[in-house]
Write a structure and sequence with these properties.
Elements: H1 2-31, H2 34-58, H3 61-67, H4 75-100
Helix pairs in contact: 1-2, 1-4, 2-3
């Protein structure tokens, strides 16, 4: 159950980061300021981290199998992973809302 939460929120984070990268990238292209470049770089690195997580959780043959074996991954680790992804989603959702407004 918690592994599914991690996967869903990882994908949602990727979608939100794609929106942010589009908006901030467009703003950087127009303004050429260091602040917007910093936002673009932050978003690009966080997007890379989430893409790697999605790969490891869904596609990597070894790690994906291990993570989906609920008896092999301690429950506290599952809770920690799910909590971090949900908190990241809440932060990105708020940031997307503020940026889009």
């Amino acid at each position: 159950m918690l592994v599914s939460v991690v996967l869903v929120f990882t994908v949602l984070n990727i979608l939100l980061l794609g929106v942010l990268l589009f908006v901030w990238g467009r703003n950087w292209w127009r303004l050429r300021s260091k602040h917007t470049l910093g936002l673009v770089m932050f978003c690009a690195f966080l997007l890379g981290e989430n893409l790697m997580a999605a790969y490891f959780f869904m596609l990597d043959p070894t790690l994906s199998w291990w993570i989906h074996q609920e008896e092999m991954v301690p429950y506290s680790a599952q809770v920690a992973l799910a909590t971090l992804r949900v908190l990241q989603f809440v932060g990105l959702a708020f940031l997307t809302w503020v940026t889009w407004d």
